[in-house]
Amino acid sequence: MKRAIYIAMLFLAACKKDDTAQPDNSANRISYVIADNLFNFSSFNTVLERTGYIKKLSGDGPFTVLVPDNNAFIKAGYANSDAVRIESGTVLNNIVSYHILSGTWELNKLPYTFNQELTTDAGAKMYVTHWVKNADTVVTINGTRVLAYNLAAENGLIQVMDAVLQPLVNASLSDAIAADTALTFLNVALQQADMKTMLAGSDVYTVLAPSNNAFRKMGYSSIDSVNATSPAILKDMLYYTMFQGRKFIYDYILTTDATDKSQQSMLNGNNITVRLIKTGVQYTGVTLQGSGNTGTINVIKSNVLTGNGVLHTIDQVLRVNQ
Questions:
Q1: pLDDT reading at 206 higher than 80
Q2: Distance, CA of 180 to CA of 72 (rounded, Å)
Q3: What is the layout of strands, in order, in the sheet containing 309-314?
Q4: What positions does the domain FAS1 occupy (predicted)?
Q5: Is residue 166 part of a domain?
Q6: Mean local confidence (pLDDT), 207-231
Q7: Given this model, what pLDDT does residue 2 score?
Q8: Cβ-contact 260, 252 below 8 angstroms
Q9: Is residue 260 domain-shared with residue 139, that is, in the same domain?
Q10: Phi/psi class of residue 264: alpha, beta or left (left: φ > 0; alpha: ψ in -120 to 50)?
Q11: What's 108's domain CATH number?
Q12: Does residue 192 share a domain with residue 146?
């Protein structure tokens, strides 16, 4: 229904022409369509105004623009256009450049497969999934749902996003962990276990990264206590926090059956249990449980994309049943 509303609204906007006000015949171009739908897109329009990308999206293109709606900006911490207006220009430039593709990409016509690599107009990588869940055809980008796709403008297409996509900042998982102050215990553990190089290479991994508080809950009171732990013990623990391949949280929602529960094989050969979280009729996330954990583990930060994988931060250390 939400997709149908977006299509109707943008169709009406595209039909509104004023040849006097738009002598360059650009009334149906992407920048105009966004500006004419401020009820849904005022925050993204403010980003375009602040960064000067309005001029680019008024050009010939063609472009495919991934437009987070206002609810997506609210989820990202921007309550309204005024909050966007006071954000750093550098941050806004990074955001908007990651939401523009060269050419017309009809995302619902891509092959039915997971995490197909596309490149933004600025040269950054993103990953598109096209899949069927029950009776719904779903398109996601970096694990974020596309609410409405292939909305036509004169110079390209608009895809409406459920969240503001986070630009790829770190070249490697190793760099991303080192840069996150909530993961300093993990970073030291990786150094002590001689695993930093592994997460800095070309092999792709997904890491379920225990936060600093997760280490404290497990009995590591300080970084010194991590350093004092045998590298072999740390390596055994850390191999249960990662697996090869790139996996976003929504990938589990798309692949889990009616039991709402699945198993994920980890690098040490053991499994963890992944359970879907449902709010009303919508799946909104997952919880995790290691074979040695007595309770569920929550994902507190998800879908951090790096050049060689994906990072999810969790609130407890995954444990193997001994």
A1: yes
A2: 23
A3: 242-244, 205-210, 309-314, 297-306, 282-290, 271-279, 261-265
A4: 28-165, 170-318
A5: no
A6: 97
A7: 52
A8: no
A9: no
A10: beta
A11: 2.30.180.10
A12: no
pTM: 0.88
Question: What is the mean predicted confidence (pLDDT) over 303-308?
Answer: 96
Which of 128, 161, 194 terminates a domain? The answer is: 161
Three-state secondary-structure class, residue 138: strand
45 domain residue, yes or no: yes
Q: Where are the alpha helices (DSSP H) in the chain?
A: 2-15, 30-35, 38-51, 53-57, 70-75, 81-85, 89-97, 173-179, 184-192, 212-217, 223-227, 231-238, 249-255
- Domain of residue 63: give its range: 2-161
Q: At what angle do helices 231-238 and 184-192 cross, to 10 degrees?
A: 120
Q: What is the pLDDT of residues 19-43, one digit of tens each?
A: 434 444 467 899 999 998 888 999 9
Distance CA 15, CA 27 (A): 9
In this structure, are 201 and 84 located in the same domain?
no
Residue 265 identity (one-letter amino acid): S
Give the gyration radius of the chain's Cα atoms.
22
The two tokens of residue 236 are 């055994």
Burial class from Cβ neighbours inside 10 Å (0-12, 13-18, 19+) for residue 44 reads buried
Distance CA(261)–CA(65), nearest Å, equals 35
* Contact (Cβ atoms closer than 8 angstroms) between residue 303 and residue 144: yes
Whether residues 237 and 91 fall in one domain: no
214 falls within a domain: yes
Contacts with 191 (C-beta within 8 Å, 6 or more apart), sequence order: none
